[in-house]
Amino acid sequence: MAENRKRILSGIQPSGALTLGNYVGALRNWVELSKDENYEAYFMLADMHTITVRQDPKEFRKNAMDLLALFMASGLDPKRSPIFFQSHVPAHAMLGWVLVCNTYMGELSRMTQYKDKAQKHAANLNAGLFTYPSLMAADILLYQADLVPVGQDQSQHLEITRDLANRFNNAYSPTFKVPEAYIPKVGARIMSLQDPTQKMSKSDPNENGYILLLDPIDKIVKKIKRAVTDSGSEIRRGEGKEGIENLMSIYSAVTNKSMDNIEAEFEGMGYGDFKSAVAEAVVETVRPIQERYAELIKNKDYLKQVYKSGAETAGRTAMKTVSKVYRKIGFIEP
Ligand code: ATP
Ligand code: LTN
Questions:
Q1: Is residue 158 in contact with ligand 1, taking CB distance under 6 Å?
Q2: pLDDT beyond 80 at 294
Q3: What distances in angstroms separate CA 95 from CA 3, 49, 128, one per listed residue?
Q4: How far is the CA of 243 from the centre of ligand 2 (A)?
Q5: 10, 22, 28, best to mutate for ligand 1 pocket (most atoms within 8 Å of CB)
Q6: How far apart are CA 70 and CA 217, in angstroms?
């Protein structure tokens, strides 16, 4: 039975504190998918991707351990699905290089995340920032993943991963599974609470724009109450209603109520009441995660055991692919 289960692989960078956007767009769906008997899932802390932007080593280590604890606090079970650091599994760098050599400059220059980050990090415009999608493709193809659960902003990287898989399969012989993105219907793109035309992002200089999973509860409530809306009064979707619609998708994501049902539930009610309901629902989601996190982060030995055993399992799976690839491209067997 283990053999015909579908594979899942996904990752998040330990580049800072996790936002509600990361949770709703990615992590929460990982938890759901990983409980499904039909899937075999691997979850990665993409620390090699994180150094495309210069990190303070001390802060980087803290962010990495925090993210590991948050993965588990959100409900990922390391006994079921290996959780590992990318830098602990050498296969990522090994296949990464091969794929860099199979990626065209032209396709990398079209990546919107690159164009964005190149602007933001003009002082450190390193080659890693540019070749990031090739390494991400390696992360996925190493595990022969069928499905990659991510938020909307990663769909372009999934497309290039599919292109690279097909390119290699055609140039040599069928080697890689061509993966599909799994992008949730609700919550794939949570917007800033201060500017609903921008993605909610942990690198936003205005902290009122994002909610962190580890924000104190009263701060979360305040941020939601301060969220920009519009001068109208109706709780519904539509032109000029981007702020309200964003709060509706947050509410929908954490309660599983449909957008239609939310419009019906709040008919005739004002923004104040609606924001209170959103805040309450978000707090209800976040509070148990914070409680579990507080316990887990104290237990460094357990966390270490989790990431060590995760890397062993992941490494075994990943090396099988690397060996195949090395053989096919003509490297002499060691
Ligand atoms: P940064 O803001 O520093 O670029 P980020 O917050 O976008 O980082 P990532 O580590 O790049 O975080 O993303 C991790 C996962 O969270 C990805 O699957 C991504 O698609 C998803 N994600 C990020 N932001 C959002 C958002 N606002 N809404 C929904 N999903 C999101
Ligand atoms: N680029 C992704 C993080 C990431 C990833 C992956 C996601 C790195 N490798 C493999 C899915 C599969 C991001 O969210 N910024």
A1: no
A2: yes
A3: 23, 14, 15
A4: 27
A5: 22
A6: 16
Question: Which one is catalytic: 6, 35, 202, 257?
Answer: 202
Residue 294 tokens read as: 């507080």
What would the mean pLDDT of 74-102 be, rounded to a whole number? 98
User: Which strands make up the sheet holding 83-85, listed edge to edge?
Assistant: 83-85, 39-45, 6-12, 147-149, 180-182
Q: What is the pLDDT of residue 2?
A: 54
Contacts of 332 (CB under 8 A, 6+ apart): none
Query: 72 is written with which tokens?
Result: 């588990």
73 C-alpha vs ligand 2 centroid, how far in Å?
Answer: 20
Verify whether residue 177 is a known catalytic residue: no
Q: Which residue has the higher pLDDT, 167 or 186?
A: 167
Q: Which residue's CA is minimally distant from atom 2 of ligand 2?
A: 12
* pLDDT band per the 50, 70, 90 thresholds, residue 98: very high
Say what the pLDDT of residue 280 is.
98
What is the reported pTM?
0.95
Residue with tokens 């292109």: 163
Neighbours of 215 (CB within 10 A): 20
